[in-house]
Amino acid sequence: MTGRVDELPEPTGRSLPLPERWAPEQQETIPGVSWAWQAITGVLLLVLLTLHMIANHFVVQGGLRDYQQVIDYITNPVILPLETLFLVVVSWHGLLGLRAVIFDFGLSARAERIVTRVFVAIWVVTVIYGVTLLAILVTHR
Amino acid sequence: MTDRAVTRDADPRPSPGVPLSARRRGVAGWVDVRGRRLGGVAFILNRITGLGVLFYLYLHLVVLSQLAVGPSAWDSLLKNWFLNPVFLVLDVVLLAGLLIHGLNGIRVALVGLGLVVSRQKALLGAFGTIGAIVLLIGTLMFISHGG
After folding, report:
1. For the domain with range A35-139, which CATH number is right: 1.25.40, 2.40.10, 1.20.1300, 3.10.490?
2. Smallest CA–CA distance from A63 into chain B, residue
3. Mean pLDDT, all residues of chain A
4. Distance (Å, rounded) from C-alpha B92 to C-alpha B60?
5. Which of A22, A35, A67 sits opposite B23 (nearest CB)?
6. With B87 labelled, which of A104, B5, B61, B104 sits at a CA distance of 20 to 30 A?
7. How many structural domains is chain B composed of?
8. Which of A45, A101, A119 to mutate to test the interface with B (most CBs of B within 10 A)?
9. Helices (H) and strands (E) in chain B — how many of each?
10. Segments of chain A with pLDDT less than 70
11. What is the Cα–Cα distance from A79 to A77, expressed in whole angstroms?
12. Record: contact A104-B145, CB cut-off 8 A
């Protein structure tokens, strides 16, 4: 940012003029962290999604698991933690990606913080929903 | 900060390969292919497939709630809807989206880490071939499950 605060014009609803908002030096730190998270979760997803697709679509007689096959699958002590991890990682990766898309519209720092909090909340709700569903299926078979 | 990577394909920051002027136009900016390099086009494809797959993820999670309703709810959903040829076509679209997003993601990660930067076209060719083969195998398997 350049200039003193008292030299800035009256607020126009935008926190920064457009060219400054896109200044690469302002995007150096946080997107770097996000990028690393996206890469790490992406690599994990290559393994977890491949497993999920093969197990649920390619080795099943008929192409998709019926109810009993789903129960047999997710009550497997190796599969349950892997599918839970898949839920946690895939929702994180997807929401972080959508957050990056939204950030590219050029938000103020305050709006970015709000979006981040909303997305963390959506992620937590997603994981709770998925784990609850898994718990129902594992316990009420 | 230097200006080394503002429009470089391998830029690990958001919107690599997208001209700054295009970035300022929101969604209209992404789909405009003028002035982009190959990495910029791959970036748009990654966004589109990423958004599509995220939409599918939440649809999938909602549909899975039918498992909690009971065996008859799930099994009839399977029989009446998901093994229908229309859904099998959508499965092929989903697999294509996952392959594009996943393989391009590996490419972005490799290039972003400074690996294979000078062989990007070869990398694209290799991943394109792998993706096409897996998509073909997957499609044949979906067809064999249909009907």
Report:
1. 1.20.1300
2. B145
3. 82
4. 15
5. A22
6. B104
7. 1
8. A101
9. 7, 0
10. 1-31, 141
11. 6
12. no
